[in-house]
Amino acid sequence: MSAPNPPYGQRPTGPQPGQPPYGPPRYGPPPGYGPPPGYGPPPGYGPPTGPHTGPHTGPHYGQQYGHQQRPPQGPPPGPSAGGPNPVIPPGFGGVPLPADIPQSVQRAFLLWVGIIGVNVLSVIVSTIGFADVLTGAGVVSALLGGAIGIFLALHFRGGRPWARLVLTVLTGLAMLSSVFSFFGAFVLMALAPAWGFLTLVTSAVFLAGGALALILAWNASSNAWFVKVTF
Known about the structure:
mainly alpha; about 50% helix; about 230 residues
């Protein structure tokens, strides 16, 4: 049954057959409009986040977004960056001594210091009676040689292998010279008993102290310690 027609000049009221009801239009995309399912950024995409990171921090932020990482800032490389200064003897200038110095190394160090002191004293006493330029040069040379010997002995006590090698060579040369001085002291005692006796005592100290220092510096415990200690 069809709806009655309205009077002439009037619009029909109510919904007409086959037409949607009157009212405000519906705004928005039609049903089914939008990106297909599964479309979007891959999982894990974006800046790293966490309790100690922000949107622009993190170790991989620059790699993900193509930013160039800055090199780590720090002090320029110097002697302290590669380890202690090799010139300063351990125990001085802020360079620490090793904590486990064996007794053999400590005794060899004391023996070398004693030998050096005896050598300097004997040179000064043997030349003090001559007031000339050569005498002064001899005293200066003895003092300079003693300072170098103490410098090497301090490095030896600090575990420097090169100091042990240099002290070994110098001690061997001094012992070889002391052998000739020891036998020459008996001849010198006939001419000048005081100087001959001083030469005899000095040569004996060099031979006995030097041999014992070398034995202590190169025994098994000392060798194991020098291998373990590194600078």
